[in-house]
Automatic annotation (TrEMBL):
It comes from Patella caerulea (Rayed Mediterranean limpet). This is BTB domain-containing protein. One of its GO terms (biological process) is protein homooligomerization. The keyword Membrane applies. PANTHER family: POTASSIUM VOLTAGE-GATED CHANNEL PROTEIN SHAB, VOLTAGE-GATED POTASSIUM CHANNEL. It comes from the Eukaryota. It is found in: Membrane. Signal peptide: none annotated.
Length: 454
């Protein structure tokens, strides 16, 4: 009976005793050695580092993952030798669990990215007369800025229009670009009661035109003037025309994207596309409100609505992130870390209520508990607006503990999200580099020149 067996793994010989092999009689190595003829050398073409780890497992009873081996490759290798992942030592199990979690995230991101980048190859479901090559070319021009030089130019123009629209919207809200209400505007505002206010309107109009404050000439008193709505926000005409031109551009672009998109169902799965549609709708709602009822343009309720619409139109800024990898990774990381972020919010909320209750009891500077909760959140997140502060020793002590607790909670929970983002972003960057390398000439594409051929 052979007491020692010779195993040749990738050119390196190992001598293994029968006693050592009998520790794991059902393993692949034991079965191979016991089935071999006497003095026969067993040849195996397997990874050497993995075999050394398996042999160490026979010797010490501890199975460690070699630093030179990929976790996924090593787990497949130990299955070949007749072992399973549960045999891996505890110290390496933690690393393996982290690796598995990271791989799941990367696989999910690949699916997410593939859905985003590859749906232009699908057949169009919204436009039967335009399909195949021309549909694909048109869609890539509209949606893929790296397609060719024309796509890049169109993308730059689109970004410039977005910035112009955003700046115009901001300027329209500034008082220096407001225009004074003219007589026709005042008539629309007052309606049937315009005659009762005509003398005040004429007085205000001549003031805007550089006149003097001659109250007696217009039979106007200071008391009437103080109660009169002398200022209204009227849109600047040139800026309004620029805004309309931007809206026309976005409308044409949106129609083209809807016509040439590969799938309407898939088109509306992306938040940026929904934002585009919403922004265009909001722009036309604004225009319609101006045209349908001009009198309502000067009412306070109308301007409240316009302010809301302007905020929604600012969503166009997200178009700037359409072709930025980091932005897509950030969106995916937020979706993928919802549980962690929700857990952080729950912890902050519980502690905020606790510290708010304490400071409300110890400090008279807080009128109600809701105000104290606001203070606790601002303190725990280290923002510290300073609009309300503790006024006595007890309240200050609670404030110190509250701020310290917030720092600890955020420091412990935020890295869960940050690490996830960094890992996926690094993967996305490396994937982009690989795609760029694929565009270069490969060795098989190389053809020797006549000089090299001699």
């Amino acid at each position: 009976m052979t007491e020692r067996f010779t195993v040749n793994v990738s050119g390196r010989k190992f001598e293994i005793s029968r006693h050592l092999l009998e520790k794991f009689p059902e393993s692949t190595l034991t079965k191979m050695c016991f089935a071999a003829e006497e003095n026969e050398e067993i040849f195996l073409e397997r990874p050497l580092s993995a075999f050394e780890a398996i042999l160490e497992f026979y010797q010490t009873g501890d199975l460690h993952v070699p630093e030179s081996r990929c976790y996924n490759g090593f787990t497949e290798e130990i299955k070949f030798w007749g072992f399973c992942e549960s045999d891996i030592s505890t110290c390496c199990q933690r690393k393996l669990a982290s690796f598995r979690s990271g791989q799941r995230d990367l696989n999910e991101y690949e699916k997410y990215e593939m859905t985003y980048t590859n749906y232009s190859t699908r057949e169009s479901s919204c436009c039967g007369f335009m399909s195949g090559k021309w549909r694909s070319v048109a869609w890539n021009l509209l949606d893929n800025c790296s397609y060719n030089i024309f796509a890049k130019v169109l993308y730059v123009v689109s970004i410039l229009v977005v910035l112009t629209s955003t700046i115009t919207t901001i300027l329209l809200t500034h008082v220096i670009f407001d225009e004074h209400l003219n007589l026709e505007g005042w008539k629309l505002y007052f309606g049937d009661t315009y005659k009762d206010h005509k003398h005040i309107v004429e007085f205000i109009t001549q003031l805007h035109n550089g006149g003097t404050k001659n109250y007696s000439a217009f039979n106007v008193t200071k008391e009437e003037l103080d109660e009169f709505p002398t200022e209204f926000r009227v849109k600047n005409v040139p800026l309004t025309l620029i805004s309309y031109c931007c809206t026309a551009f976005f409308t044409i672009e949106l129609i083209l994207r809807l016509v040439f998109c590969p799938s309407l169902k898939l088109f509306f799965k992306f938040a940026l596309n929904i934002i585009d549609v919403l922004a265009v709708i909001v722009a036309y709602v604004d225009i319609c409100l101006n045209q349908i009822s001009q009198k309502e343009e000067y009412s306070s309720n109308y301007f409240d609505l316009i302010q809301l619409l302007q905020v929604l139109r600012m969503l166009r800024l997200f178009r700037l992130t359409r072709n930025i990898t980091g932005a897509r990774v950030l969106v995916f990381a937020v979706k993928n870390s919802v549980k962690e972020l929700f857990f952080m919010f729950i912890l902050l909320s519980i502690n905020a209520v606790l510290f708010a209750t304490l400071v409300y009891c110890f400090d008279d500077n807080f009128d109600n508990l809701s105000y104290a909760i606001w203070w606790a959140f601002i303190t725990m997140t280290t923002v510290g607006y300073g609009d309300v502060v503790p006024s006595n020793t007890g309240g200050r002590v609670v404030g110190v503990v509250c701020a310290s607790t917030g720092i600890v909670l955020i420091a412990l929970t935020i890295p869960l999200f940050v690490n996830n983002f960094l890992a996926i972003y690094t993967f996305a960057q490396s994937k982009e580099l690989v795609e760029k390398d694929k565009m270069k000439i490969h060795p098989q594409d190389y053809r020797p020149t006549e000089k090299e051929n001699g």
